[in-house]
Write a structure and sequence with these properties.
Layout: H1 12-22, E1 29-30, H2 47-59, H3 76-85, H4 94-97, E2 100-106, H5 107-122, E3 128-132, H6 136-144, E4 149-153, E5 155-156, E6 161-162, H7 164-174, E7 180-184, H8 197-210, E8 213-218, H9 228-231, H10 233-241, E9 247-252, E10 264-270, H11 276-293, H12 300-309, H13 312-342, H14 350-354, E11 359-361, H15 366-376, E12 378-379, E13 385-387, H16 396-408
Parallel strand pairs: 1-12, 3-4, 3-7, 7-8, 8-9
Antiparallel strand pairs: 2-10, 5-6, 9-10, 11-13
Helix pairs in contact: 2-12, 2-13, 5-6, 7-8, 8-10, 13-16, 15-16
This protein binds (2S)-2-hydroxybutanedioic acid.
Residues 13, 33-34, 135, 137, 189 line the site of (2S)-2-hydroxybutanedioic acid (LMR).
Amino acid sequence: TRLNVAPVPPDEIFALNHAFGIDTHPQKVSLGVGVYRTDDGKPWPLPVVQKAEKELEAASDAFRHEYTAIEGDAPFLPMARDLMFGFEGKPSEEEAKARIATVQTVAGTGANHLGALFLAHHMKPRTVWLSNPSWANHMTIWELAGIPRKTYPYYHASTRAFDFDGMMSSLENDAEEGDVVLLHACAHNPTGLDPNKEQWIAIAELCERKKLFPFFDSAYQGFASGSVEEDAWAVRYFFTAKPDMEMCVAQSFSKNFGLYGDRVGAFHYVTNRASSSLRDVVVNNLCHLIRGEFSMGPRAGTAIVKKVLSDEALVKEWHADLKVMSSRIRSMREALYAELVRLQTPGTWEHIVQQNGMFSYTGLTLKQVYALKDQYHIYLLKSGRASISGLSKKNVAYVAQAIDDVVRN
Ligand code: LMR
């Protein structure tokens, strides 16, 4: 037998990040990978995370490198669940909690992957519906799970707006019972365009009526608006308003805790009845998949999240850190917009301030994106997606000037 392997295209986001890393131009700007940066273009380990790390170091727990359970770190699991679904410890919520099977994952990608694999094994959906466009890794994840993919319209290029009508009519007419619909809980990646509450309600109703299975990807809770409640609104609405509907949530802590490389995440499968025995069977089957793939989620990052979420004072500090990140991003949107208006750059640019979260879907063409990279050493995705946190007070005028130039020429 001989190895039969053909090259696959490299991952665009990480290839671009590498190209940026080795670029020696002094004015280079990374608007590629979705990571938070300070106004000096530096990573920002959250102050609350640094504090938690110090406390953990001082405690020097002899068990800190031991195995955890296959489902993950036991105290972390309900904390992750409660952050996502919003329980406040009321006894009436015990029943609702019995609907949710939670396991620890290898961050958001791992949660998406585990969920896709679980559904592929146990539900065998005919199709998964992804938004057009979506995070490119969604494509890869579902391809590897062996589930055929289709897309629903999401972005209206001429108006640069969310194409709600297109999404609804596509799912209404073409999706079939049992199909999975992948939804971004907030801060849609790459467009930065989210449904409003009324639209979410209509999407939930459509899923319920057509018996579609909602699969939420929640990668930006607290990071998008600065409020963990606001950013969880859609997930919590589906959960409470549609108790007869099954769904699941992939939860990442990469952005909202700045723990990108630590790989902290959780996967929640929501059943349609409050049955702890059903929930336990779901966990048991998830554990079977986890054991065969990676045995258990990593430990160090969850220890930090656990430390923060279990201490009211630290939670407050975390919320303040989230505000720092989300407001700097918002102010950079405004600064870029103001510069483009000042330069009278041809086109309309309001969408830059209207979009939400880490990214702006700029509407720049492939040719313009390449020109920005080749002539100005400014890196963004081929789709025109720009990671706004790569902007700073120091480089925003340079970036606006470059955009102005490539748009005019
Ligand atoms: C991004 O979209 O840039 C981030 O979510 C990083 C990643 O894993 O792709």
